[in-house]
């Protein structure tokens, strides 16, 4: 399968690197996209498009840059999606029904399962309730471990904006978790 | 009253929850992500390209209808304008023509002459 992708001008080594990179990031990217668009299928599409564009346009770049590039592409995909969703809504197109992700929680420990389920649902809802920019700044900073400058590059905004979004996100999450 | 969560605690809680959710994504979703990755590496298309194509067709049809309406509006108003313009040009030409003015003055003179002859004023 990987030999076929030589048609894209990628060496086998580069394909393996890309495959490993994308395999390591795809699930988290999916969750970030799903939080942003609140739709499972659309989130899958956005992630696949981001993967496709990274491979097409940036595969020759230094692999160390791939994380930032990938999340920048994904953010652009999400923004485009939101813009189109807004236009579709404006023209009266019906949106997809929101499909919440139900994780398959298979575990042998019912106590842990229960605790995790309650906490998990509470936290996921708290993140969903964040305004989009705050949500993405928080996820990129906290979960993806990007620093302020990297987050600003990904979100195409100033470092000051990232700090503000992030601080507000923390404050909101604190309130919501205390209230829950 | 419980102590508010610190930033570090929020980080830890959220990250644990998110990691947990990622570890427990359902198999179907994981398969779709995997096949999407393989397609991306092969340079293949996704459902979105199809969707974008549909989107483009929607905009093309909207553009075509708008263009047709514009053509209709302009052709309709164009006809009206051309009639008025033709008449206006004709009147302008007549008024601006010195020969026409002379002719009108002569005609006026002959009408006056005829009227005065009939009324016997000149006699």
List the helices and strands and how they pair.
The complex is a heterodimer of chains A (180) and B (123).
Chain A: H1 12-37, H2 40-58, H3 66-90, H4 110-128, H5 132-143, H6 148-155, H7 159-179
Helix pairs in contact in A: 1-2, 1-3, 2-3, 3-6, 4-7, 5-6, 5-7, 6-7
Chain B: H1 7-23, H2 27-42, H3 47-96, H4 98-119
What can you tell me about this protein's structure?
- The complex is a heterodimer of chains A (180) and B (123).
- Chain A has helices at residues 12-37, 40-58, 66-90, 110-128, 132-143, 148-155, 159-179.
- By secondary structure, chain A is an all-alpha fold.
- The longest helix of chain A has 26 residues, at 12-37.
- Chain A is globular.
- Residues 1-5 and 94-107 of chain A have low confidence and may be disordered.
- The mean pLDDT of chain B is 73.
- Chain B has 123 residues and is an all-alpha fold.
Percent in helix of chain A: over 70%
Q: What class would the helix/strand composition of chain A place it in? A: mainly alpha
Q: Structural class given helices, strands, pairing of chain B?
A: mainly alpha
Number of E strands of chain A: 0
Q: Largest sheet of chain A, described in full?
A: none
Seen as an oligomer or otherwise, the chain set is heterodimer
Greatest interface by residues involved: A-B, 52 and 38 residues
Helix and strand element order of chain B: HHHH
Sum up the overall morphology of chain A in one term: globular
End-to-end distance of chain B, in Å? 126 Å
Query: Could you name the ranges of chain B where pLDDT drops below 50 across 5 or more consecutive residues?
Result: none
Query: For the residues shown, what is the average pLDDT of chain B?
Result: 73
Low-pLDDT runs of 5+ residues of chain A are 1-5, 94-107
The share of residues in helices of chain B is over 70%
């Amino acid at each position: 399968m990987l030999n076929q992708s030589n048609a894209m001008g990628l060496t086998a080594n580069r394909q393996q690197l890309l495959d490993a990179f994308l395999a390591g990031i795809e699930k988290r990217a999916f969750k970030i996209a799903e939080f942003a668009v609140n739709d499972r299928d659309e989130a899958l599409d956005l992630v696949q498009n981001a993967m496709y564009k990274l491979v097409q346009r940036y595969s020759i770049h230094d692999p160390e840059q791939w994380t930032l590039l990938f999340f920048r592409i994904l953010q652009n995909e999400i923004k485009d999606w939101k813009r189109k969703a807004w236009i579709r809504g404006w023209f009266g197109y019906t949106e997809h029904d929101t499909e919440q992700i139900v994780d398959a929680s298979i575990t042998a420990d019912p106590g842990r399962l229960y605790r995790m389920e309650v906490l998990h649902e509470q936290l996921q809802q708290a993140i969903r309730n964040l305004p989009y920019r705050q949500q993405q700044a928080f996820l990129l900073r906290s979960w993806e471990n990007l620093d302020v400058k990297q987050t600003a590059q990904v979100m195409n905004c100033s470092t000051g904006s990232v700090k503000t979004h992030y601080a507000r996100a923390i404050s909101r999450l604190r309130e919501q978790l205390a209230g829950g | 009253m419980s102590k508010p969560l610190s930033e570090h605690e929020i980080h830890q809680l959220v990250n644990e929850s998110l990691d947990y959710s990622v570890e427990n994504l359902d198999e179907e979703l994981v398969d779709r992500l995997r096949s999407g990755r393989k397609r991306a590496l092969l340079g293949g298309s996704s459902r979105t390209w199809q969707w974008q194509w549909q989107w483009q067709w929607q905009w093309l049809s909207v553009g075509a209808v708008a263009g047709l309406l514009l053509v209709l509006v302009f052709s309709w108003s164009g006809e009206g304008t051309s009639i008025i313009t033709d008449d206006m040009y004709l009147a302008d030409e007549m008024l601006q023509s010195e020969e026409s003015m002379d002719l009108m003055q002569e005609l006026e003179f002959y009408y006056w002459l005829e009227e005065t002859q009939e009324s016997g004023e000149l006699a």
